[in-house]
């Protein structure tokens, strides 16, 4: 106490936080952050998925633009020889470039040589190595501008990856391992079994054009444009960048098979190869979205379809004239 002009003034002590109180405050802040973080991550993924949906929408509308001009759907790729890896002409992703405001890039492409070749004045290489945000889903693990060497490509050629593939059709499996209803419509050496056993209706909207398999138009989609998937997601695998999808290369299409890994292979590629050998996983789909992936249908709509969907239903959606009584979920 102090005396000031006859008055007694009592000094007050300033009380600080105790260690226990400080720990309680830190704990509360930690709990709030733990509660908030998943919500923030969910909001970010929702935004990424929305952007991915918009990309697919633009690609689907570009296919419609191509059809309006050429009166046919673009081929996933046009094969002109027996080598299904190198003798490939313009893929569908390049064919639709004028309809996504990329006419200048389209003009660089040399359609008189195989897609993996450099082309006139290295034009094909320039296109293959160009990063287009339209082909990159934000949820994919692709780093913008990251060039990758394809796993089965000789030499040191690098290519720009992409997140989307055209649907070439349905199949029961790789033709060398399956005695009936096998083969795919995305590789020239594998489509013959399906053609020979009368499964031509199992081709997809963006199939390979080779031999007896020609371009289709909308009239050929007798299963219905709202019940046929046209473009799906194939995100960069976690463990093997060399198996990525490449937007202007040969791996721009895929087939839906009766394979339990069909929607998950990009997320666990090594295990898929163990259970389904002989490169079956090369024709799979998958995305880093929780629970499923986006598909663009021929009518231009985009659906998010669960990766637990019955594969028979998904296979039915992948064919244009298979007469399957299925509807898109």
Enumerate the spans where pLDDT stays under 50 for 5 or more consecutive residues. none
Supply Rg.
27 Å
Strand runs, count: 7
* Largest sheet properties: 5 strands, mixed
Q: What is the mean pLDDT? A: 83
What order do the helices and strands follow? Answer: EEHHHHEHEEHEEH
Structural class call reads: alpha+beta
Question: What's the number of structural domains?
Answer: 1
Number of helices: 7
User: How far apart are the first and last residues' alpha carbons, in Å?
Assistant: 81 Å
Shape: globular
Helical content (DSSP H or I, runs of 4+): 25-40%
Main-sheet strand order equals: 5-3-4-6-7
Please explain how this structure is put together:
With 329 residues, the chain is an alpha+beta fold. It has one domain. The chain is 28% helix and 11% strand. The chain has helices at 19-70, 92-95, 103-108, 123-128, 188-196, 269-275, 311-318, and strands at 2-4, 7-9, 164-171, 229-233, 253-257, 292-297, 302-306. The protein has a 5-stranded mixed β-sheet. A two-stranded antiparallel ribbon has the order 1-2. It starts with a strand and ends in an 11-residue tail after the last helix. The relative contact order is 0.14.
């Amino acid at each position: 106490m102090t005396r000031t002009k006859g008055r007694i003034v009592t000094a007050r002590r300033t009380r600080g936080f105790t260690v226990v109180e400080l720990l309680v405050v830190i704990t509360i802040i930690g709990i709030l952050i733990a509660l908030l973080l998943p919500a923030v991550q969910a909001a970010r993924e929702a935004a990424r998925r929305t952007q991915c949906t918009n990309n697919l929408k633009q690609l689907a509308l570009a296919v419609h633009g191509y059809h309006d001009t050429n009166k046919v759907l673009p081929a996933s790729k046009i094969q002109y020889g027996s080598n299904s890896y190198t003798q490939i002409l313009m893929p569908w992703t390049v064919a639709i470039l004028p309809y996504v405001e990329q006419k200048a890039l389209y003009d660089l492409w040399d359609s008189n040589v195989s897609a993996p070749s450099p082309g006139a004045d290295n034009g094909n290489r320039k296109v293959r190595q160009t990063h287009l945000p339209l082909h990159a889903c934000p949820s994919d693990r692709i780093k913008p501008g990251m060039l990758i060497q394809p796993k089965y490509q000789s030499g040191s050629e690098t290519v720009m990856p992409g997140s989307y593939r055209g649907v070439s059709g349905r199949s029961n499996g790789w033709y060398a391992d399956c005695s009936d209803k096998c083969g795919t419509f995305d590789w020239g050496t594998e489509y013959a079994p399906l053609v020979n056993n009368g499964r031509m209706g199992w081709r997809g909207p963006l199939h390979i054009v080779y031999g007896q398999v020609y371009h289709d138009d909308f009239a050929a989609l007798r299963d219905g444009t709202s019940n046929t998937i046209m473009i799906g997601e194939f995100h960069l695998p976690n463990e093997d960048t060399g198996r990525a999808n490449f937007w202007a290369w040969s791996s721009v299409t895929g087939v839906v098979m009766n394979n339990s890994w069909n929607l998950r292979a990009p997320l666990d590629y090594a295990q898929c190869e163990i259970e389904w050998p002989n490169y079956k996983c090369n024709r799979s789909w998958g995305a880093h979205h929780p629970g499923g992936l986006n598909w663009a249908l021929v009518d231009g709509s985009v659906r998010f379809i669960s990766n637990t969907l019955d594969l028979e239903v998904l296979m039915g959606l992948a064919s244009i004239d298979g007469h399957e009584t299925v509807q898109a979920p």
